[in-house]
C-alpha cells in the first residue's frame, strides 16, 4: 500500500511530504492508520544530526486504528484503536532491538527506524503498538507514547518519588510538564519548576508546580537550595544540556554521613555531549545520579494506567497539548515553531478523526 509521510531526504533541507510504499505486514507487524502524532524535541536532534542514514522517517508517539495485522499478532486486531510508541510494550517477551521497518521511497527499498509516526500510516512491529480503547480522545492520548512515558515514567518508574518528597524540574517543555504531573500524581511535596521562559513557568503551575524559578534572572541552584533549605530529594533534567546537567546535581540535597543518603538527580533529556561531574558533590553527600529512559516503563501495564489517570483528570493531556496542526503537511511549520521555542507544552498533528 501507499501512504504519505514526512521524509527527511537530505540533512538541513525541509521534510518532503511524499508517498512511500509499505510492504504487507509480516507475521509480527501491525499496519496502523494514524489519527494523531506528537512532535517531540528528540526529532530535532535527529534532524540536526548529519551522520544519520537518509532517507529517514521520524516521529515516535501517536494514536491510530489497526487496519491489518500479521498472523502472529494476538494483542490487537483490525479496527482496534491503539497507541504507537518507541518503548517496546513487553520486554519479557522480546528484548530490544525491535526489528526495523521497511519501505520504498522514490523507487528504492529502504530500511527505516523501528518506529515512525510522521506519516499517515505506520507499519510497526507489534511491540510498538498498545491498545487504547474507544472511550477516550485519540488526540489527547497521542502524546502518551513519548512525552508522558518519558516524563511521568521518570518520576514514577525510574525515581520512585514518594509522598512528601521535594522535587525540582529543569526545563518545563513537553516532557518537563509531564515530570511535573508525575510528581503531583506521586503526591510530592514542594515541586519547583525551573526554566528560562516566564510563559512556560506560568504554564507549569497548571501541572503541579508549587514554585517557579526563572534561571535567566537568578541562579537556579541558589534559588532552589534557598527554597528547600539545602536541596531537593529529586531533581530532573528534561533538557540534557551541560548547564542543566550540572544544576540538577547541585540541587540534589546532601545526605548526612551514616544517617541519611543524599538526593537523586535524574537525567531525562538526552545529553548531546560528554557529562562532567563536579567532584565536590561525589562521593561526599552520597548523592545519586541516575538516567531514565522511557521512564523505566513497562507499557503493557503502565500505558493503561496513564490513560486512566488522564480520564480521572490527574494527567491533563488536553492542557499539555498547546498546538494542534490539522495535517501532516504542517510538519515543517511544526518543526520550525518547536525549534523557535514557541511551543509551551506539546504540539501534535491531527491526520484523521475517528469515524
Ligand atoms: Zn520523544
Describe this protein's structure.
The structure is a single chain. This protein has 355 residues and is an alpha/beta fold. The protein contains nine helices and 18 strands. It starts with a strand and ends in a 5-residue tail after the last strand. A hairpin with a 2-residue loop joins strand 7 and strand 8 (108-111). It folds into two domains: 2-135 and 316-350, Medium-chain alcohol dehydrogenases, catalytic domain (Quinone Oxidoreductase, Chain A, domain 1); 147-295, NAD(P)-binding Rossmann-like Domain (Rossmann fold). Helix 2 crosses helix 3 (174-185) and helix 5 (220-228) runs parallel beside helix 6. The mean pLDDT is 96. The strands form four sheets. Strands 3, 5, 6, 9, 10, 17 and 18 form a seven-stranded mixed β-sheet that branches. Strands 13-12-11-14-15-16 form a six-stranded parallel β-sheet, sandwiched between helices. 25% of the residues lie in helices and 25% in strands. The radius of gyration is 20 Å and the shape is globular. Bound molecules: zinc ion (ZN). Zinc ion (ZN) binds next to loops.
**SSE order:** EEEHEEEEEEEHEHEHEHEHEEHHEHE
Strand proportion: 25-35%
**What overall form do the CA principal axes indicate?**
globular
**Most strands sheet:** 7 strands, mixed
How many domains in all? 2
Q: What is the helical fraction, as a range of percent?
A: 25-40%
Structural class: alpha/beta
Instruction: Give the ligands present.
Output: zinc ion
Query: If you compute it from the alpha carbons, what radius of gyration comes out, rounded to the nearest whole angstrom?
Result: 20 Å
The CATH architecture of the largest domain is Alpha-Beta Complex
CATH topology of the largest domain: Quinone Oxidoreductase, Chain A, domain 1
Mean pLDDT: 96
Number of strands: 18
Are there runs of 5+ residues with pLDDT below 50, and where?
Answer: none
Q: Counting H and I runs of at least 4 residues, what is the number of helices?
A: 9
Output the CATH homologous superfamily of the largest domain. Medium-chain alcohol dehydrogenases, catalytic domain
Distance between the termini: 21 Å
What is the CATH top level name of the largest domain?
A: Alpha Beta
Amino acid at each position: 500500500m501507499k501512504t504519505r509521510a514526512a521524509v527527511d531526504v537530505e540533512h538541513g533541507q525541509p521534510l518532503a511530504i511524499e508517498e512511500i510504499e509499505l510492504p504487507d505486514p509480516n507475521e509480527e507487524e501491525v499496519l496502523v492508520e494514524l489519527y494523531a502524532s506528537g512532535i517531540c524535541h528528540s526529532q530535532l536532534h535527529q534532524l540536526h544530526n548529519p551522520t544519520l542514514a537518509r532517507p529517514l522517517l521520524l516521529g515516535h508517539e501517536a494514536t491510530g486504528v489497526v487496519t491489518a495485522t500479521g498472523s502472529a499478532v494476538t494483542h490487537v486486531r483490525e479496527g482496534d484503536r491503539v497507541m504507537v510508541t518507541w518503548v517496546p510494550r513487553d520486554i519479557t517477551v522480546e528484548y530490544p532491538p525491535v526489528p526495523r521497518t521497511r519501505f520504498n521511497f522514490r523507487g528504492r527499498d529502504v530500511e527505516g527506524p523501528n518506529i515512525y509516526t510522521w506519516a499517515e500510516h505506520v507499519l510497526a512491529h507489534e511491540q510498538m503498538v498498545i491498545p487504547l480503547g474507544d472511550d477516550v480522545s485519540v488526540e489527547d492520548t497521542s502524546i502518551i507514547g513519548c512525552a508522558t512515558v518519558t516524563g511521568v515514567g521518570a518520576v514514577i518508574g525510574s525515581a520512585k518519588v514518594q509522598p512528601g518528597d521535594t522535587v525540582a524540574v529543569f526545563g518545563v517543555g513537553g516532557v518537563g510538564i509531564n515530570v511535573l504531573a508525575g510528581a503531583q500524581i506521586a503526591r510530592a511535596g514542594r515541586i519547583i519548576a525551573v526554566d528560562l521562559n516566564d510563559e512556560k513557568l506560568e504554564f507549569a503551575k497548571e501541572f503541579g508546580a508549587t514554585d517557579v524559578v526563572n534561571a535567566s534572572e537568578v541562579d537556579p541552584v541558589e534559588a532552589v537550595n534557598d527554597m528547600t533549605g539545602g536541596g531537593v530529594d529529586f531533581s530532573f533534567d528534561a533538557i540534557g544540556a551541560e548547564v542543566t546537567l550540572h544544576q540538577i546535581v547541585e540541587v540534589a540535597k546532601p545526605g548526612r554521613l551514616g544517617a541519611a543518603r543524599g538526593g537523586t538527580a535524574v537525567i531525562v533529556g538526552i545529553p548531546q555531549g560528554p557529562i562532567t561531574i563536579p567532584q565536590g558533590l561525589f562521593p561526599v553527600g552520597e548523592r545519586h545520579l541516575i538516567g531514565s529512559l522511557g521512564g523505566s516503563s513497562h507499557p503493557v501495564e503502565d500505558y493503561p494506567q496513564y490513560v486512566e489517570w488522564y480520564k480521572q483528570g490527574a494527567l491533563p493531556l488536553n492542557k499539555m497539548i498547546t498546538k494542534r496542526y490539522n495535517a501532516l503537511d504542517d510538519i515543517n511549520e511544526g518543526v520550525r515553531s518547536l525549534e523557535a521555542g514557541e511551543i509551551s507544552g506539546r504540539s501534535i498533528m491531527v491526520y484523521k478523526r475517528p469515524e
